[in-house]
Amino acid sequence: MAMAMAILFIIFPLAYSIPFIVLHGIGDQCSNRGVKTFTEELNSFSGVKGYCIEVGNGSWDSWFLPLTEQTNIVCEKVKQMKELKGGYNIVGLSQGNLIGRGIVEFCEGGPPVKNFISLAGPHAGTASVPLCGSGIFCILADSLIKGQVYSDYIQEHLAPSGYLKLPNAIPDYLEKCRFLPVLNNEIPSKRNFTYKERFSSLKNLVLIMFEQDTVLIPKETSWFGYYPDGEFNPVLPPQETKLYIEDWIGLRTLDKAGRVHFISVPGKHLGISVEDMKKHVVPYLKDHSSKEDSTSKAGFSRMRKIISEH
């Protein structure tokens, strides 16, 4: 019997929890108290190792480095992290979710992403640039926003312009916006099946919307809900959008398989409580995966035969 058990553990290795990464939002950085505490709490609550991945110098680059470049930077970082080689989970905060999805869809040769937990992600776009304030970043951003948001200059120098989707300017958005139309496979002549295949391979997609969110316009973009083309009303639920119906990125495929979790929590933008963190985020970080992705039927049959002989 002891021999049989030893063989069993060789063929079916013990399960383990894979690490996770945190991708922060706009105007933030990994060393800031809020993100640092959030990452540490997830480490503590889940018992799993997590890493906040920084882009450049953090706050500045989160505003002014195009999202394609931010995604490329994070892609190279995750490929170089030996801790992630066996796969990992992503926890995205606001704009960080678009970088995270870029990693899933665009990062050639990167380690596999298992679970994607999105907090207040502008997945379908936003009809307004995120609220800012009076700091130097905001003054610079405001001066850029006052220009043509879909101009080459602003697309190259203001990160949120890459996912600003104005319902009354859809032709310009599709033609000139450089990030979200590609990420969401929205351009008919440029749809990439590989992006859809990679995104629909996720084990779980957890979409958390904040009920009092006034930063994302509309807040339902956290669920891939958005306005119909040409209108600012009503907000379409995700299942009634063309992205879902025509399954451009595999969202419908994931949903039909029961792997999309639409979650609504009280609070303002990213104002998640510890209780809701433990309820809606931590379980997907503690999700166990075998060190071997699969065991062939032949191997399973051999294992059963060996056990029966002992």
Describe the structure.
The chain has 310 residues and is α/β, with parallel strands linked by helices. Helix content is 40%, strand content 12%. It has a 6-stranded parallel β-sheet, with helices on both faces. A two-stranded antiparallel ribbon has the order 1-8. β2, α2 and β3 form a beta-alpha-beta unit.
Q: Helix- and strand-based class?
A: alpha/beta
Read across the widest sheet, the strand sequence of neighbours is 3-2-4-5-6-7
Whole-angstrom Rg: 21 Å
- β-strand amount: 5-15%
State the distance separating the first and last CA atoms: 6 Å
Question: How many distinct beta strands?
Answer: 8
User: Which spans have pLDDT < 50 for at least 5 consecutive residues?
Assistant: 4-14, 290-310
- SSE run: HEEHEHHEHEHHHHHEHHEHHEH
* Total of helices: 15
Shape: globular
Largest sheet descriptor:
6 strands, parallel
